[in-house]
Design a protein that fits this description.
By secondary structure, the protein is of the alpha+beta class. Helix content is 61%, strand content 12%. It is built from three helices and five strands, in the order αβββαββα. The strands form two sheets. Strands 2-1-3 form a three-stranded antiparallel beta sheet, with helices on one face. A two-stranded antiparallel sheet has the order 4-5. A hairpin with a 5-residue loop joins strand 4 and strand 5. It is rod-shaped.
Length: 150
C-alpha cells in the first residue's frame, strides 16, 4: 500500500521532467525538441524540475533554453561568416602571389631574351619588335608593382 502511495507521488514528477532532445542539424543550427530527431544523434536533457514548479515557471525554463539555443546559433553563424572571410582573404592572397611570380618570370624572360615571341589571336607565334617588347616590360613592371606589394 505504501508503495502505491509513493508511486502516486513520484509519477507526476517523472511526467513533468520529460526529456528534451538537443540536436544540431546539417546546417549547424541547434534545436530543442520533445521528440528525438529522425536522423542523427541527440543529447537528452532532463530539466531539473521540482514538484512545486508551476506551468508558467516551466514555460520560463523552456523559453530560456530556446533563447540559449538562438544565441548559440547566432554565435555559430558569426563564426562561420568570419571563417569564410578569412578563407576568401587567404585565397586572394594566394592568387596575388601566383600572379606576382608569373609577372616576375615574364619580366625576367623579357629582359634576358633578345628575341621574344608571343601568341597572336589565331594561336600562332610571332616575334615582337623592340617597341612592343618595351611596352610589355612596362606593363609587366606595373603588374609586379600592383600584385607583389605587401
Amino acid at each position: 500500500m505504501r508503495a502505491i502511495i509513493l508511486l502516486l507521488f513520484i509519477f507526476p514528477i517523472m511526467i513533468s521532467a520529460a526529456p528534451i532532445y538537443k540536436w544540431i542539424d546539417s546546417a549547424g543550427l541547434t534545436h530543442y525538441t520533445q521528440d528525438p530527431p529522425k536522423h542523427g544523434n541527440a543529447q537528452v536533457i532532463v530539466p531539473k524540475v521540482s514538484p512545486g514548479v508551476s506551468p508558467e515557471q516551466a514555460e520560463e525554463i523552456v523559453d530560456k533554453l530556446r533563447k540559449d539555443s538562438a544565441m548559440d546559433n547566432e554565435a555559430r553563424a558569426k563564426a562561420q561568416e568570419e571563417q569564410l572571410k578569412i578563407q576568401a582573404k587567404r585565397e586572394e592572397s594566394d592568387a596575388r602571389a601566383r600572379r606576382c611570380a608569373e609577372a616576375r618570370t615574364r619580366l625576367e624572360s623579357l629582359h634576358n631574351s633578345p628575341r621574344v615571341a608571343v601568341k597572336d589571336a589565331q594561336g600562332e607565334y610571332r616575334r615582337i619588335d623592340d617597341d612592343e617588347r618595351n611596352s610589355l616590360i612596362k606593363q609587366t613592371e606595373a603588374t609586379i608593382e600592383k600584385e607583389c606589394r605587401q
